């Protein structure tokens, strides 16, 4: 997960997930991630994915 998000370690994953949740792109709770806005995530990601 950290590699896909471009962060290091569990703390980086949590911070990235919280940022994406704040932007209402995902919901994140206790390690469970639900995509809320697929198009928004695609727009935010780089072309390498």
Pick out its properties.
two-stranded antiparallel ribbon; alpha+beta; globular
Question: Mind explaining what this structure looks like?
Answer:
With 49 residues, this protein is of the alpha+beta class. It has one domain (2-44). It is 51% helix and 16% strand. Strands 1-2 form a two-stranded antiparallel ribbon. The longest helix has 14 residues, at 9-22. The chain is globular, with a radius of gyration of 10 Å. The mean pLDDT is 87.
Overall spatial form: globular
Order of helices and strands: HHEEH
Structural class: alpha+beta
Gap between N and C termini, in Å? 13 Å
Q: Give the percentage of residues in beta strands.
A: 15-25%
Mind sketching the topology for me?
Layout: H1 2-5, H2 9-22, E1 26-29, E2 32-35, H3 38-44
């Amino acid at each position: 997960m950290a590699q896909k998000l471009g962060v290091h370690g569990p703390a980086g994953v949590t911070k990235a997930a919280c940022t994406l949740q704040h932007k209402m792109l995902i919901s994140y709770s206790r390690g469970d991630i639900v995509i809320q806005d697929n198009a928004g995530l695609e727009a935010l990601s780089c072309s390498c994915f």
